[in-house]
Design a protein that fits this description.
The complex is a heterodimer. Chain A has nine helices and ten strands. By secondary structure, chain A is of the alpha/beta class. Chain A has two domains: 193 residues, 3-Layer(aba) Sandwich (Pyruvate-ferredoxin Oxidoreductase, domain 3), CATH 3.40.920; 80 residues, Alpha-Beta Plaits. The termini of chain A are far apart. By secondary structure, chain B is of the alpha/beta class. In chain B, helix 2 runs parallel beside helix 4 and helix 3 packs across helix 4. Chain B is globular. The two termini of chain B are 21 Å apart. Classes of the chains: A alpha/beta, B alpha/beta. Chains A and B meet through helix 7 and helix 8 of A and helix 1 and helix 8 of B.
């Protein structure tokens, strides 16, 4: 059985990507299962989808913890604990990651010996982001080696029928380019070993004494403790204030920020990057255009460089 | 007659610059509902109990995290106003029995989406108004069941594409006039607000906070994934809803409806529709002149019918 896990951010089309791959497998005569995992997260937040494919009926259910292929649409998810990108990755797993950085960099950084493939990150524009899923699916289909170009095309047309010709054409172009790009690595993914109910090991629970809620769960009496959640990790674009151009109107960016992530002290606005989700409303609304959108990845690289030089 | 008060929110500069609602909520990036709630909460303050019907904003408080500084109660979709009755009664009893002093009293605030407000919860709201319950109701109206993938609701506008109205004509029904339905109960206060018009919003919630009895607000809440536009456009979409006359800013007070921001020269509705993917079928592959005119006519008829 093939076990494939998709990681992306809400809005990058990974749920659709998993459906396309599942349908393509189905068209090739496989038994399949494809399901996204729904949680309390939204656009920009980590999302997951799972595909299982086998030549016999699939009895396994639930999330995939021993993947044969892990597809990562956004490399900024790797360090996010909630995304759990590396869960169950071992030497037989293949990691397909959408990144500007090299395969060697990722192998070194993650200290893993499994096969790693990268897709060039090509989405500069946010409008293009939703097609990343298509690129991932195309590449994955070729790496699996069981899906023909025709089945991939048909699956895309079938799954996206509602979205109109323009979207289908663009998705086909992206997916097929990625499919062709991976031709030298066709069929490099091995199916994982069968699991059996008798192999099940209980999770390592930690038993806590049963105390009164006031003792055991003091946080429910805390106010506004949602600040502990770092929604800044959702961001792919970062708003940066040019204080030379800021005319200290002191309310526009702060009032319109849906997340209350811009505070004004004195007359100077300050963006809370731990919580800014990167919607860019402040960039669009700032009257003197003093806020600029920069790539989050670039901003982080520059920060790291500054740190090492100082 | 309600007492005539002078608003402290005369201009943008009077709006609060620090915010009370906690950051780190799981609402979508660019959420128009959260934008409005942030502005409302700054003025409602921490002496409040939120009663939240199932919907997107149920996720504000996912154990153990909450952005609120006061209490929060979660109810089923149809029953938030009934939950508010229970909370109000409990507070009254605690004060009466002197287990709590009168100045520790709290505002009871119902928070629901349009699915609950326009549909399932309408009967419970009607009952609460009938009993003259002292509460605030905030409806964040994103014109569909946003939490589950934008299926149409009774608040979905004519012609909009939703997950359950995908045809070339979009949603065949018409947005329910909840403002009029609520106002017909003759409660203390009803108003429409929009996060992109923060001064108008601040004045209305300020006014509502000085009153007793049922006070209800509907905040049109542009929704990036549900309405299909880039999150950075949330404020532009909201402003255009007002400038095109699609979303009239008004209040019902002392038995009268007053329009608080009148777009004297209304922009064509097309400018509002064009920004949103849910109306794309009106312009591509061919322009659907008939449906665009139908939407424009409805807006024009509204403004022609009222006595400004």
């Amino acid at each position: 059985m093939y076990r494939i896990r998709f990681h992306g951010r809400g809005g990058q089309g990974m749920k659709t990507a998993s459906r396309i791959l599942g349908t393509a497998f189905f068209l090739e005569g496989y038994e399949i299962q494809d399901a996204p995992r729904y949680g309390a997260e939204r656009r920009g937040a980590p999302i997951f989808a799972y595909v299982r494919a086998d030549d016999q009926p699939i009895n396994e259910r639930g999330i995939i913890t021993n993947p044969d292929l892990v597809i990562v649409a956004d490399d900024s998810l790797v360090p996010v604990p909630a995304a759990g990108v590396l869960t169950g990755v071992d030497e037989h797993t293949v990691l397909l990651i959408n990144s500007d950085e090299s395969v060697d960099t990722w192998k070194h950084r993650l200290n893993i010996s499994c096969k790693v493939f990268t897709l060039p990150a090509e989405a500069e524009e946010r409008a293009e982001l939703r097609f990343i899923g298509a690129t991932c699916t195309g590449a994955a289909a070729r790496l699996l080696g069981k899906i023909s170009r025709e089945a991939l095309q048909q699956a895309i047309k079938q799954e996206l029928a509602d979205l109109g010709e323009a979207v289908i054409d663009k998705t086909l172009a992206k997916a097929l380019a990625a499919y062709d790009h991976m031709k030298n690595h066709e069929g490099c993914i091995q199916t994982g070993s069968e699991t059996d109910a008798s192999d099940y090991t209980k999770p390592a629970w930690i038993n806590l004494p049963f105390d009164d809620a006031r003792v055991s769960a003091p946080d429910i009496h805390a106010s506004a403790n949602s600040v502990e959640v770092r929604t800044g990790l959702w961001r792919t674009l970062r708003p940066v204030i040019d204080y030379e151009r800021c005319n200290k109107c002191w309310w526009v960016c702060s009032t319109f920020c849906p997340d209350g992530a811009i505070k004004v002290s004195g007359q100077t606005p300050e963006i809370d990057y731990n919580h800014c989700k990167g919607c860019m409303i402040c960039v669009a609304q700032c009257p003197p255009h003093a806020i600029e959108a920069v790539s989050e990845q670039l901003a982080q690289q520059q920060e790291a460089e500054q740190e090492t030089s100082s | 007659m309600a007492e005539q008060t002078v608003s402290i929110y005369r201009s943008m500069k009077d709006l609060p610059s620090t915010h009370l609602l906690g950051t780190g909520t799981p609402m979508c990036s660019g959420c128009g509902g959260l934008e409005a709630l942030n502005q409302l909460y700054d003025i409602i303050g921490n002496k409040s109990v939120f009663v939240n019907a199932a919907g997107c904003m149920t996720l504000l408080s996912v154990y153990p995290f909450t952005p609120f500084r006061g209490s929060w109660l979660y109810t089923a979709m149809a029953s938030a106003p009934a939950g508010a009755q229970g909370v109000r009664d409990a507070l009254d009893i605690l004060i009466q029995k002197q287990r709590m002093s009168a100045d520790e009293d709290m505002q009871v605030v119902v928070l629901t989406g349009d699915g609950a407000a326009y549909g399932m919860g309408l009967s419970a709201t009607s009952g609460a108004m009938e009993r003259n319950l002292d509460f605030l109701y905030i409806c964040y109206d994103n014109e569909g069941y946003g939490n589950t993938g934008q299926q149409f609701s009774a608040a979905t506008p004519h012609g909009a594409k939703t997950a359950t109205s995908k045809g070339p004509r979009g949603y065949p029904g018409f947005k329910k006039d909840l403002f009029a339905i609520w106002a017909a109960h003759n409660p203390a206060y009803v108003a429409t607000v929009e996060g992109a018009e923060p001064v108008d919003l601040a004045r209305k919630i300020e006014k509502a906070m000085t009153m007793k009895g049922p006070r209800l607000l509907i905040a049109l809440s542009p929704c990036p994934p549900g309405w299909d536009y880039d999150p950075k456009e949330t404020v532009n979409v909201g402003k255009l809803a007002v400038k095109t006359g699609v979303w009239p800013l008004k209040e019902y007070i002392d038995g009268r409806v007053v329009h608080t921001k009148i777009p004297r020269e209304r922009k064509p509705v097309e400018e509002y529709l064009k920004l949103q993917g849910r109306y794309k079928h009106l312009f591509e592959p061919q322009r659907n002149e008939k449906l665009i005119n139908e939407i424009q006519d409805k807006v024009d008829r509204y403004w022609d019918s009222i006595d400004l």
